[in-house]
Specification:
Helices cover about 40% and strands about 30% of the residues. The N and C termini lie far apart (about 40 Å).
Length: about 140
């Protein structure tokens, strides 16, 4: 099985239900940890691994976390497929210090990079409260 076939098999077999609940917003969601927990057995089965990195991008007067999730074939480590996602840091967030704000943006970007890499579709029941952030990210990518 080549690298593309391995990633396709993982995407096909992976199931990550939205098991978390945001009581304030009233919606269900899945976290980065949920995705990674569900995909690890499939990575072992298909002999691959996921590598995630974060970069900081300054656009105008805002900072964005750019997370890149890569699937690497353990049997051909020079072959990888990668997807990146952006998340904007809030200037302030009640109850969070600056490092927690950055960490929150990192988690958000990583989750959406994993969604793209692993073909996890959120259109059926999208997190409606996240639309504003996604639109901001879209303008950075297109701009």
């Amino acid at each position: 099985m080549n690298t593309a076939e391995k990633l396709q098999a993982i995407q096909t077999e992976l199931e990550v239900p939205k098991g978390q609940m945001n009581n304030f917003g009233g919606y269900k969601f899945r976290s980065c940890e949920d995705i990674l927990g569900a995909v690890k057995p499939l990575l072992a089965k298909h002999k691959g691994f996921i590598h995630i990195t974060d970069d900081l991008k300054h656009v105008g007067d805002r900072y964005y976390i750019v997370a890149t999730a890569s699937f690497v074939d353990a049997e051909a480590p020079n072959v990888a497929y990668s997807v990146s996602a952006f998340a904007r840091e809030d200037e302030t967030k009640k109850g969070m210090d600056p490092s927690q704000i950055t960490g929150s943006a990192s988690s958000y970007a990583r989750k959406y990079a994993l969604n793209g890499l692993l073909a996890i579709d959120d259109t059926k029941d999208a997190d409606v409260t996240n639309v504003e952030r996604c639109e901001a990210c879209k303008s950075v990518i297109e701009g």
